[in-house]
Amino acid sequence: MSGGGTVITIDGPAGSGKTTVARMLARRLGWGLLESGSLYRAFTWILLREAPRLLESPEETAVANFLRGILPDLRCELGEEGLRIYFRGRRLSEELRAPETEARVSEVAALGAVRRLVNEILRGLVRERDAVAEGRDMGSVVFPEARYKFYLTASPEVRARRRYLEWKAKGLEVSEKEVLEGIKARDHKDSSRREAPLSIPEGAVVIDTSELSPEEVLRRVLAYIE
Ligand code: CDP
Asked: Mind listing the pLDDT tens digit for each residue in 101-117?
């Protein structure tokens, strides 16, 4: 194992299981787990809290300039269990999965200038430690030279069911229908945006996880890389 710069990418839509499998893989390899969505979520949460007016009709340069301005207050650590993000010393965790963050993150992630900032941070982090990078555009845009690339997918209904069960377990009151609508809306925004739309990266191995357990997906991933 080298001490940085080696990347395996796992991309796919919400609920495809990429986060679960990326986590299992990172643990197995002892590598960092780079959850790029967390950074988009963190920026969305910070904007909602510190500059909600910028989100009224988001202008990419203004939003990115604001975010560059708060960088000294932001700290990111690439751990095996994921990206640890601190804002003014406070570790962000539940905030990143809050429904308000969830509802606005695709809009923030659609801004090209924000994506460039996120990508700079992500590339800096993997210089220090080998990583499994998980997101929408890891294999296509951020790490096109990755050692291995995977793209996970599943039907919208299966993905909504997974997300619904996750939220229910946390005690959140949502209906499965609402979750499905949210997933479809996010799919649409992520796939139709001009900047880095969700797509299968060149050279990626595609795995449909609809009928597979996380362990089975991991087994297939390992079969490719071992
Ligand atoms: O797995 P899930 O989609 O629920 O969450 P996530 O991976 O944390 O991503 C949240 C949102 O961030 C996505 O819907 C995308 O809009 C955006 N995102 C992105 O644009 N590019 C990435 N590499 C990762 C996330």
From this structure: 988 999 999 999 999 99
Report the distance separating Cα 114 and Cα 68, nearest Å.
9
For tokens 């910028």, name the residue.
54
Domain definitions of the chain by residue range: 7-208
Q: Is 122 in the pocket of ligand 1 (CB under 6 A)?
A: no
Q: Which fold has domain 7-208?
A: Rossmann fold (3.40.50)
Distance 17 CA to ligand 1 centre (A): 12
C-beta separation of 152 from 10 below 8 A: yes
17 ligand 1 Cβ < 6 A:
no
CA angle, 85 as apex, 53 and 199 as ends, to 5°?
75
Q: How far is the CA of 40 from the centre of ligand 1 (A)?
A: 7
Specify the pTM: 0.91
Rounded Cα distance between 51 and 64, Å, is 12
Ligand 1 atom at minimal distance to the Cα of residue 11: 23
- Find, among 1, 2, 14, 38, the residue nearest to 122 by Cα: 38
